[in-house]
Amino acid sequence: MYDNGRGVPKDNAKVIDWWQKAAAQGYAQAQSNLGLRYDIGRGVPKDDAKAVELYLKAAEQGNADGQFNIGFMYANGRGVPKDEIKAVEWWKQAADQGNAIAQNCLGVIYAKGRGVPKDDILAYAWLNLAAAQGNNEAATTRDEVEKRMTPEQKKQAQKLSRELFEKTSKKL
To answer: What is the DSSP code string of 86-114?
Structure first.
């Protein structure tokens, strides 16, 4: 409420105070939200190590936002050593829960072969899922990947996309 000013005036200090209390009690979404504040330095000093600590706590509890964000930190070497393999592992967990941004990141990583073998079929499938949720960047990248695919690869990618949709839509 204090974060968006719904029913009360916006108050960054109160947002941080409530999220700290909830995070200390193990509430994963509060840990992820507070981690983001440390990540960007909004209402608290910017602190990558503290952001990583909070994201990891949230991610280990299965929080998709925490999983995406810790993956981002690994992908960029912020607060942790750069490790694209760990980034992919965390993004996969978030993507499996329907996180469109993680799905887009997986698609891009498979399209480029960064940290994983290049795989246009997997790239297309993940990008297609993210695009179906309104991620325009994913739609553009998916269309670029599709241009270099054979008709058989497109057929395989669309089948995989449907299978992944069935799997992830049950978690939404």
So the answer is: HHHHHHHHHHHTT-HHHHHHHHHHHHHTS
Exposure class string for 143-164: b at 16+ Cβ within 10 A, else e: eebbeebeeebeebbeebbeeb
CA distance 72 to 65: 11
Residue that has been written with the tokens 């960029």 in this structure:
76
Q: How confident is the model at residue 6 (pLDDT cuts 50, 70, 90)?
A: low
Q: What pLDDT was estimated at residue 1?
A: 45
Domains assigned to the chain? 12-86 (1.25.40.10), 98-172 (no CATH)
Contact between residue 165 and residue 129 where contact means Cβ atoms under 8 Å apart: yes
Which residues are CB-contacts of 152 (< 8 A; sequence separation ≥ 6)? none
14 pLDDT band, cuts 50/70/90, is: confident
List CB contacts of 103: < 8 A, sequence separation 6 or more. 95, 126, 127, 129, 130, 133, 135, 138, 168
Above 80 in pLDDT, residue 20? yes
CA distances, 76 to each of 3, 73, 88, 169 (Å):
27, 5, 12, 29
Distance between CA atoms of residues 59 and 92, nearest Å: 12
